[in-house]
Design brief:
Chain lengths: 222, 101
C-alpha cells in the first residue's frame, strides 16, 4: 500500500486532519466522561460510531433518554446520503467489501479531501481515501483515549465544561450559516429552544426546538 | 436502553446512512424532505448551543455563558466560521466574565 502514490498522497494530505481530529477526540473523551458515559464505553463509541456530530449530540442528549438521541442520530445521519451518492459516483464500480469499507468512515473531512483529490486528478481514489480514513480513525481513537484519561482528572464546574460544550456546538453550527434562510433557522432554533426549556419536559426540549426550526426552514427559499 | 445498546444503535443508524447509496445508487431525497434534512443539523446544533450557553443547569439565566455566546459569534465572524475561532474568543470572554463577576 505504501508504494501506491495515491495512498501516500492521502497520508500526506490528511496530516493536518490527524492533529485537528485528535484534538476533537480529546475534547469528546473529556465531555463524554463528564456526561456520565463510562471510560470503556466512551472509547467504544469512538471505535464503532466514528462521527463527531453524532457522538457529541449523543453525549449532549444522554440525560434526556434514548428516543431523543436516536432521533438526533437519524437526523444527523441523513445528511450522509448525498455524500454517499457522490462518493459512489467518484469511485465507480467496486467490490462490495470495498464499498462497505468506504462507507464506515464517510465523514466531512475525508469526504472533502477525496472530492478535492478527484478534481486534482488522483488516479486511485479508494487508496487515497483509505489512507485519509486510517489517519482520521487512528487520531479520533487516540484523542478520545487521552481525553478519557484526562476527563476524570478535570473538575467540570471549575473548567465551565457546559459552557465550552455550548460553544463547541455554536462552532459546529457556524459553517452551516450561509444564507438568509440559514440565519432565520438559527434564530428560530434559539427562540424555540428558550421557549421549549420553559414549557416542555427535558427529554423533548432540544429535538422539538430543532424540529420546529427545521420545519420553518423547509418552507423558506434560500 | 442501556448505554452500550444506545451506542450500538447510533452506530447502526450512522453506518446505514453512510452505506445506503454506496451499496445501491438511488436518487437523493429532494423536495420538502430534502430541504428539511438540509437545515436539520444547523437547527439541532443551535438548539444544543442555546441550551448550554443560555440555560446552563436547565434554567434560563444571565450567566457568563451569555458572554461566551457573544464571544463565539464574534469569533465566528472574525475567523470566517472557524470552530477554533469560536472556541478561542468565546472561551476567552467566558473566563473574563466569570473572573469579573
Amino acid at each position: 500500500m505504501l508504494r501506491d502514490a495515491s495512498f501516500r498522497r492521502g497520508l500526506k494530505d490528511s496530516a493536518l486532519i490527524f492533529l485537528a481530529v485528535g484534538s476533537f477526540g480529546l475534547f469528546y473523551g473529556v465531555l463524554a466522561v463528564d456526561a456520565g458515559l463510562s471510560q470503556t464505553l466512551t472509547i467504544v463509541s469512538s471505535v464503532v460510531i466514528v462521527s463527531g456530530a453524532a457522538q457529541f449530540a449523543m453525549v449532549g442528549l444522554l440525560a434526556t433518554g434514548a428516543a431523543p438521541v436516536l432521533i438526533a442520530a437519524t437526523g444527523l445521519g441523513l445528511r450522509h446520503l448525498p455524500m454517499s451518492a457522490t462518493l459512489s459516483r467518484l469511485i465507480g464500480p467496486r467490490h462490495v467489501f470495498t464499498r462497505l469499507r468506504m462507507a464506515f468512515i464517510l465523514v466531512d473531512e475525508t469526504f472533502g479531501l477525496t472530492v478535492r483529490a478527484a478534481a486534482a486528478g488522483v488516479t486511485d481514489l479508494v487508496a487515497y481515501k483509505t489512507a485519509a480514513d486510517l489517519m482520521l480513525y487512528s487520531s479520533w481513537i487516540i484523542g478520545t483515549t487521552v481525553g478519557v484519561m484526562l476527563g476524570s482528572a478535570i473538575d467540570p464546574v471549575a473548567v465551565g465544561i457546559d459552557v465550552l460544550f455550548g460553544l463547541l456546538f455554536l462552532g459546529l453550527a457556524a459553517p452551516f450559516i450561509r444564507s438568509r434562510r440559514d440565519r432565520v433557522v438559527a434564530g428560530t432554533a434559539i427562540a424555540c429552544t428558550l421557549i421549549a426549556i420553559e414549557v416542555l419536559p427535558t427529554a423533548w426540549q432540544l429535538t422539538t426546538a430543532a424540529g420546529a426550526a427545521s420545519l420553518i426552514g423547509t418552507f423558506l427559499h434560500e | 436502553m442501556n448505554d452500550l445498546w444506545l451506542i450500538l444503535a447510533v452506530a447502526a443508524i450512522t453506518y446505514a446512512s453512510r452505506v445506503a447509496f454506496l451499496l445501491r445508487p438511488r436518487p437523493v431525497p429532494g423536495g420538502l424532505v430534502g430541504r428539511f434534512l438540509d437545515v436539520f443539523p444547523l437547527a439541532l446544533f443551535m438548539a444544543i448551543a442555546t441550551s448550554g450557553l443560555g440555560a446552563p443547569g436547565g434554567r434560563i439565566a444571565a450567566t457568563p455563558g451569555l458572554a461566551a455566546a457573544v464571544g463565539g459569534v464574534v469569533g465566528a465572524i472574525a475567523f470566517r466560521r472557524s470552530l477554533w475561532g469560536v472556541l478561542a474568543v468565546g472561551g476567552a470572554l467566558f473566563y473574563l466574565a466569570r473572573w469579573a463577576l
